[in-house]
Amino acid sequence: MSQFKNYLSLVKFSHTIFALPFALIGFFWAVKLQNNELNFLTLVLVVLDMIWARNAAMGFNRYIDRDIDAKNERTVVRDIPAGNIKAKSALLFVIINSILFLVTTYFINITTFYLAPIALLVVLGYSYTKRFTSLCHIVLGIGLALAPIGAYLAVTGSFDWLPVLLSFVVLFWVSGFDIIYALQDEEFDKNQKLNSIPVLLGKHKALILSRVLHATAFTLLLIIAYIGNLGLFFWIADIVFGLLLIYQHTLVKADDLTRVNLAFFTTNGIASVLFGILAISDLYFKIQLF
C-alpha cells in the first residue's frame, strides 16, 4: 500500500483534476449538442485514457528530471531523488501507462487510435522542452488542451469549433498558471541553464504575461458562450472561472511567492471543478439568455 501511495505521489494524481473536467465537458458536448447516445463505456474509457496519459507524462517528467530535482532544494523531496521509487521502476511505470493509453484508444474509435501517438508524443515531449526553449509552458498547455477535443473525438470521431476553442482556453489557462509556478525556480533554472518565461523575462514581466494569457482564456470563454448559444449556467461558469483567475493573481507578487501553492494547486483545482460542474449542468438544465 505504501508503494502504491508513492506512485500516486510520483504523478501527483490529485492534479488530474485540472484537465479532467474539461475532458468531461468535451464528452458531454458531443453527446448533447450533437444528439449522440450517452455511452457509459466510452465515458469510462475516456476517463481511463486521461489517467493513463497523465500518469505517463508525469512519471516521465519525474524520470527525466531526476538529476535536476536532486539538486533543487524545493524538489529534492520528490519520490525518485528521495529514494522512494527507483528510476528504472518509474520508467517501467511510464511504459505501462503509455501502452494502456494506446490500447484504450483502440477500443474507443479509429480516429482517437490514429491520433493517440501524436498526443503521447506531446505529453511526453514536454519534459525535454525546458532544456532548449522558454516556451515550455506553452507545450504543457498544449498537452492538457488535448483533453476536451480528445473527449469530443471519442464520441463523434470528428472535430468541431466549440471543443477546439475550449482546448485553446485550456492552453492559455494552463500556460498562464505554469508560468506562476515556475517563478519559484527562476534563480535555480538560471544556474542550471534551464529555460522558462521567468528566466527569460524576469518575475515582473512573467507575471504580466501570465495575466495576459489568463485574460485571453477568459475572453475565449465568453466567445464560446456567445457563438455556442449556451445558457445561463455556462455564463455563470465563465464569471466564476474569471473571478478565480483574478483571485489567483492577487495571491502572487514578484517579491512574495509564499502563496504560489495556494494560487497554483488550490485555486486552479477549484476553478476547474466548478467550471466543469456548471458547464455540464448547462446542457441538462438549459436556461437560455438570448
Describe the structure.
The chain contains 13 helices and no strands. It has 290 residues and is mainly alpha-helical. The protein has one domain: UbiA prenyltransferase (Tetracycline Repressor, domain 2, Orthogonal Bundle), CATH 1.10.357.140. The model has no long low-confidence stretch (mean pLDDT 94).
Please tag this protein with its features:
290 residues, Tetracycline Repressor, domain 2, 13 helices
* Oligomeric assembly: single chain
Approximately what portion of the residues adopt beta-strand conformation? Answer: under 5%
Q: Runs with pLDDT <50, length 5+? A: none
Number of contiguous helices? 13
| Strand segment count | 0
Number of domains: 1
Q: What's the pLDDT, averaged over the residues? A: 94
Give helix % range: over 70%
Give a brief outline of the structure.
With 290 residues, this protein is mainly alpha-helical. The protein is built from 13 helices and no strands.
Task: Draw up the topology in text.
Layout: H1 2-10, H2 20-32, H3 40-64, H4 66-71, H5 87-106, H6 110-129, H7 136-156, H8 161-182, H9 186-191, H10 197-201, H11 203-227, H12 232-251, H13 260-284
Helix pairs in contact: 2-3, 2-7, 2-13, 3-5, 3-6, 3-7, 5-6, 6-7, 7-8, 8-11, 8-13, 11-12, 12-13
